[in-house]
Structure formats: structure tokens, C-alpha cells
Design brief:
Elements lengths: L2 E5 L2 E5 L19 H10 L6 H11 L4 E4 L6 H13 L16 E4 L3 H14 L7 E4 L6 H8 L4 E4 L1 H9 L10 E4 L2 H6 L3 H9 L6 E6 L4 H10 L4 E5 L9 E7 L5 H11 L5 E4 L3 H13 L4 E4 L5 H12 L5 E4 L1 H4 L9 E4 L6 H8 L9 E7 L4 H11 L15 E4 L25 H14 L23 H4 L5 H5 L3 H6 L6
Bound molecules: adenosine monophosphate.
Amino acid sequence: MTQIKSEPNLISVTTLLDAEPIADVCFADFGLSEDILRALGDQGYVHPTPIQAAAIPMVLKGRDVMGAAQTGTGKTAGFSLPMIQLLLAHASTSASPARHPVRALILTPTRELADQVAENIKAYSKYTALRSVVVFGGVDIAPQIGALRTGVEIVIATPGRLLDHVQQKSVNLSQVQMLVMDEADRMLDMGFLPDLQRIINLLPKSRQSLMFSATFSHEIKKLAATFLRNPLTIEVARSNATADNVTQVLYQIAEEDKREAVSFIIRERNLKQVIVFSNTKIGASRLAVHLVKTGVKASAIHGDKSQAERMAALEAFKHGEIEVLVATDVAARGLDIAELPCVINIDLPYNAEDYVHRIGRTGRAGAKGDAISLFSEKDERLLNDIEKLIGGGSAGKEGGQKQPKIVRLHLAGFVAQKLVEPQRARSSEGRNLSSGDVRNNRRAAFRSDPSPSRIDPWFLQPYQPAQSTLPPDEKSSANSSKASQKPVRRAALLGGHIKS
Ligand code: AMP
């Protein structure tokens, strides 16, 4: 089942379960210190995942490593554990800052990922005298300066804020002996290359460097060739492979019905912990508002939210106070949520690789997961790109011998409710419906009668707003059913395309 190809500069592990700990290998086999093993025991970790099993011994040997592994495969411990082990030789209980120079630097693209890596490192090093600190932008710099000045061996940072500290002389990188670039592909996507170059110029030439990336593009290989010294490439699973333990389904839903479809799916599946991905900040906010209106505990996280708001939403989600987190790709990157059972894409991502990252949020550590995507006609090209990237055909395609990775299904029982606006809803007998009647109608449509043909045809007619409610410039287009269905969306379109 698991195939390992080993060459002087390549370890390639092809495995079905890339996040599943390997039962016949133990962390104790790597010669890690008792203090680290005890901390791992506290986490309940005994056996390493494939990336950990491949990376830990090589990093301990001092090799530079280029790790290509999916999110959720345990790569953080794959670099953190040997890093802590190697730094233990320098651990000091002295209070003097001079005895705690920065010896390891971990760069991450986002604040959330920096925070999560820092949490992991704190947990793994808690029985050692090593100190670590996380620095990222969007929050007050003063406490970070204070922490850096007391002396820390491990700094976890986003590139921009680290350069702020360099400028303020609150950090000295001249003794860094280990550098980790985590989610390097995302750092390139986010335009951090110049910042990375500036930071690397501040580091000693003689150092160990590790680079991790979920995808393994030409640019990433070029970056690796520039910054790594005779690197060992460790590949776990196929680059851009989606985990086989994640069931991927696709529902074709008209663009204007997608919000309702999401709330339908959440209700029908009784989902209590789900991330919904939106391509835009405005889309994320609108969906969260819609879900809250329908009684779902939802919150949106995106680039317009403050760091404190994003962290609060994430914490509430982890504790179950929020059931649905609606996120843009940037905001969701690196979120560490164990055993998320389901992710939903209300939009297919513009960048096919983001699809892999999104669905990597579920099915972590070998657990089963569901990835549900909504798709409208205009998304055909995006879907093609995704299918090309992840391999496998899609159901219904001619000549497709391959097992489809993304299965196209009909969303049984879903009937869009845009036609049943409370103020206009009338039964076929002309009786005014109360909002309670409307709700009951909706329930009936959702639950008891999955066949649209048994629904009063009135409900299947396009919504026709009253002429008097239209602004003058819209009256002329009132005959077009498309325009008349979506008077509100015009304002959003006038705002232009919003990038998250
Ligand atoms: P990562 O890919 O580093 O974000 O890790 C994914 C998830 O797997 C995190 O929730 C880790 O805490 C968890 N994890 C990492 N290593 C192990 C392990 N050896 N055994 C079980 N769970 C692990």
C-alpha cells in the first residue's frame, strides 16, 4: 500500500493515508530527548505520520529539506521536533537575554498559521528551557518587542512584521542556524518573495534550511534551488493529490440560489462544524448574515476583519459556539482544526491549487471527510482546471475510465426559495401567507417532497417585483426576469470585483 522510493536526494512516499500515523514506527525510535517525548505523550502522539517519519531523521542529520506535503499531514511536527532536538544543546536557564539568541526562524505566510505553529512549538518544547515567540502584523508591536528583547531561541514570524522588528532593531538574526519556510507556495502567491530575500540576506550563510509547500510548482523549485543547499526532497503523496479519505461531491446550483443551498445542506446534514469557502470577502459576509438569519450560528473571517476578530471567531468555532465559519482562502490558510468533518465551497476557487488547500481542511490525520462544492454554469473553466490538477475524471464525462474524484450529484430535495418572498407569497387560492406558512412551505419543499414536480407551479415562476418598488432606472429592465430577480445584486456589481 505504501511505497517508498529512496535516492540520495529524494524520499518519495506514496501512500493512501498521508496523514495517518504509521503504526510500526514510534517517535521514541528517532532518538528524541525525554523532554520532547513527554510533551508528545501529553498530545497523545506516539507514532509519526509519513512526512514526520521521513523528515525527522533527515533534519536531525542536518540536511536541508524540501518537503512537499499536503496540509494536515503533520508537517509542523515534522520540522518542529527535530528543530527543538537540535536546539536543546543550546538551551539555557539563564535569565540573561544574551544567553538566548535567536537560533531558529520559522516564516509563515499568514498570522493564523504563525499562531498555530507557535502553539505547536510551545507544546512540544514545554519541558525544555527553550523559548519561543510569535510575531505577526495587525497587532500592537510593543509586546512583541518586549518578548524579543528578553531573548528567545525560536521566532515564528510573518515576513512583513519580522522586517519591522529588524528595522526597529528588536531582533538580531545573525545567529540563526535553522530557517524554515512554511507554506512557501502561499508566500510566493502573496508576493513575499522580496521580503524573503531581504530576510535571508540577514541570516548567516552557514545554516540549515527547510522549505515546506503543499504544491510543487516550477517557481517553488526555483526558490528551493536558490535558498537550499543540496536539499533532500521529501514528497508524501502525489503533488496536488487530494486525500482519498475525502469524498468530493459537486452540486450544480444557480448562482443566485447558492446561499440557500448552503443553508439547506447544513440543515439537511445537521452539520455542526463546517467551513464554507467563499471567493470574496463580500460573499463571505453575506453568506454569514444569511445563515445567521436562518438560525445557524455562523461567522465570517476574511481580510477586512481585525486580527482579534478573526482569532475570536476561530476560538468560538473550535469550542462549538460557532457552527459555520465562512472564510476566504487567505483567512483560512493554515487554520488548524482537527477532524473537521466537512467543508463546503460556495464558489469554486479561481486558483485550482486553492481547491486542494480548501478540501485539505477536512479528512485530517486520516479521518473521513466530505468536501461539497457548488457549481454554476459560469464555473466550467474553474472546474476543468481543478480536475486537471487533481487528476481523475468527473462523473458523466465520456470515455472516462478513471474513477471520478469529484462526483456530480443532484442536490435532492432542494428547491430554491427565492420565489417565496414573504411579502408576495400567495397560495394558488390567493390567500396571503404568513411568514409561518412560508416557513412551513419551505420545510415541506425541503423535507417531505423532494420532487419539484409536486410543488405548486406558482413557486417555480420567476419572482416579479412590484413596479412601484423599482427605482426608475430599473423599471425599463423589469421585463427581463433575470434583472428583476436580483435588484440588490446590481449594487454589489457596481462595487467591482472584490478580491479576498
Ligand atoms: P499539520 O499538518 O502540521 O497542520 O498537522 C495536522 C494535524 O495533525 C494537527 O492537528 C496535528 O496536531 C495533528 N498531528 C500531527 N502529528 C500527529 C501525529 N503523529 N499523530 C496524530 N496527530 C498528529
